[in-house]
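Efflux RND transporter periplasmic adaptor subunit, pasting as requested.
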Amino acid sequence: MKTSISKYVALFGALGLLVGCSEAAPEAKAPRPIKSVVAEIRSIGETVSQTGETRPRYETPLSFRLNGQLTFRVENGVEVKAGELLASIDKVPSQNNVLTARAELATAQSALEFARLTAERNRELFSKNVISRAQLQEAEANLQTAQARFAGATTALSTAEETLTYTEIKAPRDGIVSAVGANVGQIVQAGQQVVTIISNQDRDAVFDVPERLLNDGAGTTEVKVSLISNPAATATGTIREVTPSADPVTRTFRVKVSLDDKGQRMPFGAAVLGTIVLSPKELVELPASALTNKNGATAVFVFDKTSSKLSYRTVQIDRYDDQNIYVASGLNTGDIVATAGVSKLRDGEVVKLEAREGQ
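Structure tokens follow.
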């Protein structure tokens, strides 16, 4: 009986040893396979397109310098020539001012002539000791007063005649009337927009451009412009004006592009596409799936061939497109970068590389 018990004890002891050995040496977990690319720093350009529209180069709102009742105005859409009458207000008050100024000038001229003759006669009489010095000085003073009055009357007439011209608005250049702001018979105020004309020849393509493109495109002046409704209709433009400050709402800058002869045939208000080629930069192109984020910093995972471990590498992104990212700094040519499943990877993790295409 004792012998049987001893056999069972020995048997269970052996089983316990086997179980203990199994728990102490679990099967090792295989490294995670990852997809990757080899980083390469190279010169990469960028072609950028932006929508805009064609607009007249010159758009001039015109107004009177005087208050008055509108007596004439051209119709909207009329083509006009430089110097052509566009609008006028009642001239009678200004014409009366001219007549009054002319009468005042005539009176001042007569007074001046009388004072001049009196002064000349008194000088002669004084030289003969016929009159006193005080009488001569009085005649000279009257002459100076008459001269000042005449000068003032001359200026007043000039001002009145100029003011009379303010009752008319004339076209400063050839163009088309694009807007009217008052009707005949209406009392208009000085400075109130009455007529707007646009140039019917020179036109621009106008774009609202983000700051990044403005900075990256510094030095670029040539723009290819095409009609969105007819992409075959193209023109070449030159950047001629950039607003110095951004729009406070959109944070974009207004860019005006002068168009060549082909562009001058594009209709006003047409939607256009402007395309420029930015200067190349030294960048690393990676799939967008390689990018991760930690504590607000953009980064990628780089594979170390010696240790087979991943390291977290912060990078600076120059730009994105639909499929790729373009890294400006943080990577070197030859770095092996993980490109898939990066949200599940961790710093220091041991992985193995899947075979890349071409290997």
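Note for the archive: The chain has four domains: 32-44+282-353, 49-58+201-280, 68-90+167-200, 91-166.
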